[in-house]
Automatic annotation (TrEMBL):
Gene: phoU
Assembly information from the UniProt record: Homodimer.
Name of the protein in its database record: Phosphate-specific transport system accessory protein PhoU
Record function comment: Plays a role in the regulation of phosphate uptake.
Keywords (A to Z) from UniProt: Coiled coil, Cytoplasm, Phosphate transport, Transport
Signal peptide: none
Main location: cytoplasm
Domain of life of the source: Bacteria
Domain PhoU: 18-105, 121-206
Organism: Halobacillus shinanisalinarum
Length: 219
């Protein structure tokens, strides 16, 4: 098989795996938020166990990218495509870690906790999942105009995060006996905010891929 054809096949295989990893990571956040609201400790434990599978997916992508670099010795944009694939898989794996942390918060709260979960957390998660879709589309099409939109969406999540913390502090003032529960919600808001930061990193990776230079989308 011609070298160029083999490279294109290897690259497509890696991109397909990144798309699947992004879907699994998005599902991990969706499920983590659902079980938080439901107080489903058993499902929360399952999310933590499934994180091992996501770690394995990241490892597989990295191995294939490194092997392709070694075999094909790509240069310029082709080399950046593989480097960016490794960076994106790392960001996705770390995003799943934040879903795992949210599952831990559910376990701390306990089964059928009966606590009113701040509605902003669900809004943040929905926006973060939309960001995942947009980021992977930007990566797939190498489209910096799509990647640029991630900055504004991340600002919206930061705003929701600030609003959530303020509201939780107000609840703490009225119900100091619930401080431990409220802290778990504040932690969860922080985990989603950090989840979104990693998506912005993916947008910056797309800029690096297309432009060959690093960009800070949070400027």
């Amino acid at each position: 098989m011609p070298i160029r054809v083999q490279f294109e096949e290897d690259l497509q295989s890696i991109k397909d795996q990144i798309k699947q990893l992004s879907l699994d990571v998005k599902e991990s956040l969706d499920t983590a938020i659902y079980v938080l609201y439901q107080g489903d400790v058993d499902k929360a434990k399952q999310i933590m166990e499934d994180d091992v599978l996501i770690d394995g997916q990241e490892g597989q992508i990295n191995e294939e990218a490194i092997l392709t670099i070694a075999k094909q010795q790509p240069v310029a944009t082709d080399l950046r495509r593989l480097i960016v694939a490794i960076k994106i898989s790392s960001d996705l794996e770390r995003m799943a870690d934040h879903s795992k942390n949210i599952a831990k918060a559910t376990i701390h709260l306990g089964s059928n906790h009966g606590i009113k979960i701040n509605p902003n957390l669900r809004d943040m998660a929905v926006l973060a999942m939309d960001m995942v879709d947009l980021a992977i589309k930007a990566f797939d099409h190498e489209d910096i105009s799509l990647a640029q939109k991630l900055a504004a969406m991340d600002d919206d999540i930061d705003e929701l995060y600030g609003k959530s913390v303020r509201e939780l502090l107000e609840v703490t003032a009225i119900n100091p006996e619930q401080i431990q529960h409220i802290m778990q919600m504040a932690y969860t808001a922080r985990y989603i905010e950090r989840f979104a930061d990693h998506i912005t990193n993916i947008g910056e990776s797309v800029f690096y891929l297309v432009k060959g230079k690093t960009y800070d989308l949070n400027k």
